[in-house]
Amino acid sequence: MKKNTVRFFQAAVFATIFTGVASAELVRNPTQVGAAFDVGQIVKGTLYDGSDVTSKFKGDDQQIARTGVYLTESGTYNDRLSIYLTVGGLFWYALPEGSSFQTHRIYFGPGVGQAQGVYAFGEDPAKPAATLQFGLFGHKYSDAVNLGEYLYRSGTYPGVLTSGGWSYINAASYMAQGARVTVPMLNGMVTNDFTMYMERDLEPTNDFTPGYAVTAKPLPFVELGAGVVWSHALSLSPSRLAPKKLANEYSKATQRPSNNAGGAATDTCPCGYYTFKGFKTMARASVDIGSALGVDWAKPGEFKAYSEIALLGVEDQPYYYEKKAERMPVMFGLDIPTFGLLNKLAFEMEYHKSRFSNTNGTLVQNQLPLPINNGEDISVYDLNSAYYTSYTADQKDSVADLWKKDDWKWTVYARKEVTKGVSIYAQAANDHLRHFNFTATPSALPATTRPSDWYYVLRLEFGI
Predict the structure, then answer these.
(1) Are 129 and 188 in contact (CB under 8 A)?
(2) Which residue, of 71, 189, 279, 327, has the greatest Cβ tally within 10 A?
(3) Does the pTM of the predicted model rise above 0.70?
(4) Closest CA to 414 of 310, 317, 338
(5) pLDDT tens, position by position, 189-234
(6) What domains appear along the chain, each with residue ranges and CATH number?
């Protein structure tokens, strides 16, 4: 939680400076405060101790609970510059629970939800010709409630997929650190987004990643989108993008990893090194079915279908990244009308077929661009190896299950506003949610990796 503490003090300094300089001409908005209480259960799953996949614990019937609080201050200076600052904290429990008191105590972490400025360009600030968003802020481009949003919050090499995080619900967005320029065209029918973000979630952090996304609305009920991101394009330490270590080395002759055990690089063969640097692309579409059909029993946006596909790493790399199809997650979502019973009911599914598990083990522990767990023998992923062919039939089934079991993911999400400012949420899912151990390290693998795994969370949220 040290990073969150630093961001908290950075935001406090930012707010102090801004107040001293611009308070005389600042139009402040009302202060917003709120809290959210989460309680749920991993009905069936597996919990991993940090990034060590050998230390795994049965997650069945494990309770999950968190409590978050927040306060937001905002205002506008000279009708053009809007400032938003959200600070808060989270009470959370470490998973998995062990025998040590450290795994049973409640933890608290302060954090910054946003610390951003938005500047409007053009003659009319209410209808800006362009906007500049900068600082720390959430970036969301699709209708997804849990899955998807691949362009910014997924990895490249490796293409780690994520969902949730410090928030179990409503976390389908990317917490950006940097700048975003938005340029609308053709009376809002086309919107261009130019981004320059600092990598902050996946190694190697602090590199600069430029991106571009476009959104088009050819019809009032149809929205199309596409984007590209150049991950780790600008680095102050380029040598770490392709670490010259034996564990990261491959033979150019055999197009296979030289060694899987770590250590120093060798000069015994013409070799290459896997790299973090590369391009991600995304395409998406959504259709407001209710509006398209002209039905009167569904409000605009209440009956909607949406989908997204991404290619996490355009360029192939030997062995681990040979097949583009293994780097292409696809998701589909549907907002379902409830005729006033709920404010929102959504169902989402995702398909991502890959030999390798959705792990960040080697990424976190060794800062290497490899899609395997820390210290894992890659022979279990090679069905043509002598290592694999020596297995019994039962062992082969076990290995096949290892890398096929997490192809499909799903989510059911519901929201009901009880009264103004008070809402109840529910989510059940088999997704990519990684829990945090007592050192705040995310587990290498999600808690729900098998088809039969799932969890649910209920949230009571209020804000004024």
Answers:
(1) no
(2) 327
(3) yes
(4) 338
(5) 999 999 999 998 888 888 999 999 999 999 999 999 999 999 999 9
(6) 2-463 (2.40.160.10)
